[in-house]
Known about the structure:
Elements: H1 18-23, H2 29-41, H3 43-54, E1 65-66, E2 74-75, E3 80-81, H4 83-94, E4 99-104, E5 110-114, H5 115-131, E6 139-143, H6 148-160, E7 163-166, H7 173-183, E8 187-191, E9 193-196, E10 199-202, H8 204-212, E11 221-225, E12 239-241, H9 242-246, E13 258-259, E14 265-269, E15 277-281, H10 284-296, E16 305-308, H11 315-327, E17 331-335, H12 346-354, E18 358-361, H13 363-373, E19 387-391, H14 397-407, E20 414-417, E21 451-454, E22 467-471, E23 481-482, H15 486-493, E24 503-511, E25 517-522, E26 526-529, E27 532-535, H16 536-544, E28 549-559, E29 563-572, H17 579-596, E30 605-608, H18 622-630, H19 645-651
Parallel strand pairs: 4-17, 6-7, 6-8, 8-11, 11-12, 16-17, 16-18, 18-19, 19-20, 29-30
Antiparallel strand pairs: 1-2, 3-13, 4-5, 9-10, 14-15, 15-23, 21-22, 22-24, 24-25, 26-27, 28-29
Helix pairs in contact: 2-3, 4-5, 4-6, 4-11, 5-6, 7-8, 10-11, 13-14
The structure holds 5'-O-[(S)-ethoxy(hydroxy)phosphoryl]adenosine.
5'-O-[(S)-ethoxy(hydroxy)phosphoryl]adenosine (WTA) is lined by residues 269, 314-316, 391-394, 416-421, 442, 505-507, 519, 522, 528, 533.
Amino acid sequence: MATIKSxxxxxxxxxxxxxxxxxxxxxxKKDYSxxxxxxxxxxxxxxxxxxxxxxxxxKPFTRVLDESNxxxxxxxxxxxxxxxxxxxxxxxxxxxxxTAIIFESDEGNITNITYRxxxxxxxxxxxxxxxxxxxxxxxxxxxxxxxxxAVVAMQACARIGAIHSVVFGGFSAKxxxxxIVDTAAVAVITADEQMRGGxxxxxxxxxxxxxxxxxTDFVNSVIIYQxxxxxxxxxxxxxxxxxxxxxxxxxxxxxxxxxAEHPLFILYTSGSTGKPKGIQHSSAxxxxxxxxxxxxxxxxxxxxxxxxxxxxxxxxxxxxxxYAPLAMGATQIIFEGIPTFPDAGRFWKIIQDHRxxxxxxxxxxxxxxxxxxxxxxxxxxxxxxxxxxxxxEPINPEAWVWYYEVVGQSRCPIVDTWWQTETGCHMIAxxxxxxxxxPGSCTFPLPGIMAAxxxxxxxxxxxxxxxxxxIKRPFPSLARTIWGNPDRxxxxxxxxxxxxxxxxxxxxxxCDSDGYFWIMGRVDDVLNISGHRLGTMEIESALVxxxxxxxxxxxxxxxxxxxxxxxxxVVLKGPSPKGENAKxxxxxxxxxxxxxxxxxxxxxxxxxxxxxxxxxxxxxMRRLLRTIGRGDEITQDIxxxxxxAILEQLKKSAI
Length: 655
Ligand code: WTA
């Protein structure tokens, strides 16, 4: 624990401004503290009340929380609902003609779709899925570009009770294959191509490739949305065009009424060891968390134009693109492209053109936009903005202040939201009308979220001391299990040694003397590259799978824009390469990892050595590699190191 120390000193405080406070959903400290008190006083009543208020139930629940099978909690479990009904049908009454999605394509074409149109499309597509004999509980892989269709596909799965698992379009055939096999999916929904920055990126051919690999016989159907019309290979047994599938399908589809605990989706995320974890979420608890946080943290108003820039391949794109905005009846932007195409003003232009009020993005995007033109936002009319958000990694105070002053024109609060794939929705984040902000701090846990910082034995530490971030009580939106691996769920998130049955987040954090939470980073071997989680183990396994490589160890190195970059230390089967040869092999290995996992996992630097620093018991000492990767002097204890001479060699190994 002594190694968890915060070095950040940040004393600036930004009070919510009067204009914002005057219109906020939670107006004053009294409302806020009465919510916190309600949660503390009668936890189950608090969540039960919110679940009745926010969700439309087919059959109401009679029991709020069942903790009998710890840590496999159940919430509202005798209640019956349908998530797509809650996102679509409920909007037919008041929001039927309201725009649900403003879609802007990579090339700048705009498509608006109302709640009624979205509802009809989801019904038709859901009927299409049923016509392929897809049923409640079946798993469906979605491998699609950012599009209205991606949301339709997710909602249609929810409508018929099928469990979707969205795979980010940047993942390789191998990663896709791994997820298809782990879920034993009966269908894959994809597109011919996706467009990013003026370039077409093939998707269907990646699916074809994944399906030629082992153990995929259970995949009966591949449904292809025609995005660009590029030529694709056709498998007449398996393949169906999206547009042909929906032809003649009725535009009413009775929802599949499911139990509150029915799995809504599985989303894979990296862990510190082994293969990615299929995080499985529930229906009601997940939906409730997403909706409540949208109301409190994004201070959601029906007049908002909401824009979360996350891809639907990540949890942020699930909770704050595919589910919460629809369930709240919001108008939202979905953007296919990238921030730099056709120029670095693209995000600002979208905000200007569509009068965006709420903008939610990641620190890595903010930092790269600063670099691309810190004066650019000033050339656009950003006066519609009223709230800004940040997610994915700690935001450094300098980027925070730029975001606040230049983008938000010192008018908009910034909600720095700490949460995870596993938590389903915001956990620690400011209530913007109430909480004064400190740049770099995600401030306080939301009402009903009992977060704390503890030592390795589960005892709470004093303010100012670093420790492990835990959540002390189960909460509705928490993942229910790891798909097919409940033991891993229990051991990873509720380990015995922490005791107290707390949820262990895997992050280190500290509270300052005012009780503000500051997240310091992961405590496990998980890297945070441009806001995306990658396990060192996954990248190492990919490297070692290359026939040239004997051993590999991967560490993170701080990076100005990406947060962290990947540095791989590699031992080849033959002698360590030098000069030009080393450069060539490094390129080959980088491309190899890109093929094995996806371009986001490519090591930025590769360094070759004859060995890796190991303890006498053979454990790689990653902390030493981290120091070498950063180019710092080694001041740590190396008494347990088996082969100290290797450090000198690795220090000089940069190519
Ligand atoms: C990190 C993304 C600091 C953290 C929603 C967490 C953050 C991991 C923040 C989860 C934040 C996310 N401040 N760190 N506001 N938000 N993180 O599962 O390390 O992709 O454990 O979910 O990102 O990443 P995931």
